[in-house]
Amino acid sequence: QVQLVESGGGLVQAGGSLRLSCAASGRRFVNYTMAWFRQAPGKEREFVATITPNGATTHYADSVKGRFTIARDNAINSVYLQMNSLKPEDTAVYFCAARAGPGYSTNDAMHDYWGQGTQVTVSS
């Protein structure tokens, strides 16, 4: 069992930056692939970024590639999402997720544990 708590959301102007954090508690965080998803009002939840357990492999949605960076610190059971050059279309609730299976997936159904989400609002 893994509990996830996101933080770092807020209101920012277009072109600005935010850094989201996700603190994990429970067992064996180092064994989980971690990911960020987001859900805008009236839209489906969508994949943003993921990172494998040792941090060697990352993968991003095309919409955020080059602007967002995912990272993790296994020593303190945390994963981060650095978001730069934010756009109004990045406005959403951002969720941290953990996947126990092998490799990574962009499918939210393939993730086992979820945080409660943190709101990111980008004004134009």
Please give a handful of descriptors for the protein shown.
single chain; 124 residues; mainly beta; seven-stranded mixed beta sheet; four-stranded antiparallel beta sheet; 11 strands; 0% helix; 51% strand
Percent range for helical residues?
A: under 10%
Global geometry: globular
Q: What is the typical, i.e. mean, pLDDT?
A: 96
**What can be said about the biggest beta sheet?**
7 strands, mixed
Measured by DSSP, the beta-strand proportion falls in over 45%
What's the SSE pattern?
A: EEEEEEEEEEE
Radius of gyration equals 13 Å
Q: How many helices does DSSP assign? A: 0
Distance between the termini: 40 Å
Low-confidence blocks of residues:
none
- Number of DSSP E strands: 11
- Give me the secondary-structure category: mainly beta
Report on this model:
The chain has strands at 2-7, 10-13, 18-26, 33-39, 46-51, 58-60, 68-73, 78-83, 92-99, 113-114, 118-123. It is mainly beta and 124 residues long. It is globular and about 40 Å long. The termini are far apart.
Task: Characterize this entry briefly.
The protein is mostly beta strands and 124 residues long. The protein contains no helices and eleven strands. The strands form two sheets. Strands 2, 4, 5, 6, 9, 10 and 11 form a seven-stranded mixed beta sheet that branches.
Topology readout:
Elements (H helix, E strand, L loop, with lengths): L1 E6 L2 E4 L4 E9 L6 E7 L6 E6 L6 E3 L7 E6 L4 E6 L8 E8 L13 E2 L3 E6 L1
Parallel strand pairs: 2-11
Antiparallel strand pairs: 1-3, 3-8, 4-5, 4-9, 5-6, 7-8, 9-10, 9-11
